[in-house]
Design brief:
homohexamer, alpha+beta
């Protein structure tokens, strides 16, 4: 059967700090540089959520993008938007909020809410020049 | 052999309405909401056509993008640009012009015009935040 | 006093047709070309609303952009989004919905809702390559 | 004489929190909403610095944009990039870091470093949809 | 009378080299750095042409953007696109093709072709991060 | 194991000319048109380098994007930026510098510098509307 992908773009603004609590300050500074600022810095994150599946012949939709947008708002934006990822988001209590870890956390949350008949792939832009995809 | 993909971006502006003629007005309103306006609404569609194949050692091209641009203009833009998809485009006489159905129609038209030694993939942006890909 | 400008970007999707009812079909076709399609075509319109004024020392705001966004939604997007400008929007009953006329209509609506202590300027993108500003 | 404007775009990533220390928590929440998160949130700020002046006939430049880029890096990015605006930037010790206040602070710093024969104007994007200009 | 601005965006790709023939190689290298490569380098130039005037009540247009696009193609793109600005464009035979000089040359050409009842302003992007405007 | 992709965007500006030295001028003109200008033309090239691999649990990184940026600068930008691809870059001494050939050259250079445990994919934009990917 023909499979089509549909993609919805959303965004959120958040603060974070990169560091490994098992390392010394010097080690953290060496690896994470400016991103290790203990007072945090922040980003406008652009999030692309992609579902792949068959077109429903009654609607012409693979998945209603309004429904997908509402799902992303309820499951992801309410958790991440205008938040400090290190302090406010439980998933990063013991996990460094790098773009790589954020994209896997978002995937794991959404994967549980979306029927497994749809393939799921996430792209996350931390800046215009740095972005990540999962699964690869 | 090494395969490289080449992509040409084109665009068209069109009106459309989403609805299923077998449903009641209430059902159409419930599923398609604002997109069900019987007077139509419209979009600037951005179209990315991707061909994958081997580089011709004489030209250094996989496929001349000027030729691809002319092909897209002749086969797709002349049919879709500044048109009402529901009323003016025969392919949507009995097919709901969702982004998913539009991308499959475009693929099917171009697939017949492009040598099968090239893989073909289409990406279509209906808005900056909603887009589709086929094949997935 | 120091005056700062604040700008909020919104968007809407609409269908329209350009024509002058006092002209013959041939005249309309000659002047408006593809834009004269009687079945309509459409666009994703990007709207930038700019207010200029002094910074309120208590808030640090010239104008709360959340309030401005809500105002644009209530006064403009509810009127224009997913609509046929010619058929659904009273302001264009006897006015050709060119980008120039749309930007003046939007200005006139918002000007009545925004305190005259703020300067107001509107930018409207009809496509990525065609846009207008009012006042100039 | 002919005056031409030259513009250099730079960017920085920072955390901030909006609040007025003279207000109650309820007042701050009412006015600043999500932006009042005491744990901070953040943005990718895009900064456009515009100088207007006459073309130097020897170089063909109004102002060497490499020199302008270096000046912005030394005077602004070193101060703001990967920082917490409230905690790390002295100018915001007693000033709410709204986009309006940030753009005036940047202007005041750069105005002292650039010959007054050049007009100076700053545009600052806090998000893709919210931005400010100074002077207006 | 109400004046509205209409803007058309076009683009061209060109090679150039920055240098002053009255200077030594060392002086040219010091001022122009990488841009002084005697073998040339190049850019994708984005050009925004803005006309301001009154709306024609018969058409709803300030100026037909299709006509403006054709004019830019005939007067500017045919002269600049896929050219070496230093070698192929007569205006730069004795004029350094900096963005500042290019924007003034484009203005001077178009100003002669456009009725003086319209104000004219040109914006030229040499890169995404370096651009110029004339008049300022 | 979970594999995540990380992507870094860089850019360079270069001149080039497309031609096949084994062909007559007429053949070159027929195939390459404006791109065959013997005086060269140029582009702003946007380069996206994508590495796929497992997340290092100590850093939360697949690959430090600052390190990747430095690697791209040292291996690619120093070779290509502000250069004439035909005259200044040894790889194109006997190879036509089409986007397809450039993307393969960049891949081959970077592939030797990046551990084979990472998958590598390159995307190169020659203009906003023409771009290539390798491997496909």
């Amino acid at each position: 059967m023909k499979k089509v992908s549909v993609i919805r773009k959303e965004h959120f603004n958040a603060a974070h700090r990169l560091f490994n609590p098992e390392w010394t300050d010097e080690q953290n500074q060496e690896i994470f540089g400016k991103c290790n600022n203990p007072n945090y810095h922040g980003h406008n994150y652009d999030l692309h959520v992609k579902l792949s599946g068959e077109i429903d012949p009654k609607t012409g939709y693979v998945f209603d993008l309004k429904v997908l947008s509402d799902l992303i708002k309820a499951e992801i934006l309410d958790l991440f938007d205008h938040k400090n990822l290190n302090l406010d988001v439980p998933q990063f209590k013991n996990l460094n909020p790098t773009a790589e870890n954020i994209v896997v956390v978002i995937y794991d949350i959404l994967r549980q809410k979306i029927d497994t008949k749809f393939d799921l792939k996430i792209k996350l832009f931390e800046t215009e020049r740095n972005y990540v995809e999962y699964p690869d």
